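Hi team,

Filling in the usual template for the complex we talked about on Friday. All components are listed, including any nucleic acid strands or ligand strings, so the model treats them as one assembly.

SUBMITTER: L.P.
PURPOSE: interface mapping
COMPONENTS: two
RESIDUES: 368
SEQUENCES:
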Amino acid sequence: MTTGVLIFAYNNEHIDYLAMANWSAQNIRRHLNLPVCVVTDQVIPANYKFEQVVHAVTEGNNSRWFSDIRQSVIWYNKNRSSAYELSPWDQTLVLDADYVVASSQLTELLKVNQDFLCHRWACDIINSNSFNSNNFFGVNHMPMHWATVMLFRRSKTAELIFQSMQMIRDNWNHYRNLYGIFKSTYRNDFALSIAMNIVNGHVLNIPSIPWKLLTVTPDCKLTQLSLDNYLVEFVSENKKPKQFSFSCDYHAMGKQQLGDIIANNS
Amino acid sequence: MNTDELITHSRARFDHTTAKRVLKEKYQAKLTFAHAGGMWRAGPELQSTIFTCGKIGEIVLLDLYENPVKVDKTELMALSQQRWQEQMNAWLVEYEELNKQR
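RESULT (copied from the run log):
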């Protein structure tokens, strides 16, 4: 059985997702020892290294507010649901380009008998009070399933989940109204959550990754101290400047800060 | 030089509470391991469960996904003990390191 990592990388005018994917691929090889396939519409620069490249056009686009850039930017995110068809592997780990692999933790997922896994719970690395609401969506507070890290094997279950995501994407206004989602922007997290709900038969006990998705929000200042060691600086709720360092996998929501880290590494 | 930034940086204090909580999240993840197709969390709870099932041979246990999995007791016990000791030691080292920071 072939196993590898799939990263979607569609640049916009502000964020170089392909550079993120290239940096992430280095971390993946170092910690997970897995080949990386990038899905993009760009020409790959000669100094970038991916084991496989899939050229695919983005289906439509979205506009999303990025608080670290302080403006709405075009966000090409609509073909993540094609991961099942686009992946060259039998067992695929789909990672966001801004998910930082700093340990071998994800290898445990490859050894378990599950057709599809993703994170059910994300937590803010600084434990801000407001973040936990992101673990639910819509007026009925449906459980969120995060599309940041997805593991799937070629199977009927995985195929149905991705087909359902495509159905939800293609009929986004209907599902948005059905689940009472206030914002009109299509998000893969919403589509995945609704798809997981449908495919698993509307139950709450859905198999997921048994640890939390640590998230660094754009409100924090993120810098790299050394290889796999990062510093977070933030202002606490009582307005005091605080900082701490950490060394584990995380999701960097502040794309510009991650971009700066990658630029310093290249 | 941005002096405001410099002052803010110099006043920033190491946040032990948050660092300790992130360490806990990190090591709770690292205590999770896959074996025989199931997912397990190393620790006294798993080891006690295996211990109550006798000394050797195969048993069926529920994994973290509540699936029954047939496992070799000795093998799973050894893996759990090894993982527990390695990760708890690493946790202690990092915890002591963060206590040295101001």
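MY TAKE: The beta strands of chain B are 13-14, 32-35, 38-41, 58-62, 68-72. The mean pLDDT of chain B is 91.

Thanks, L.
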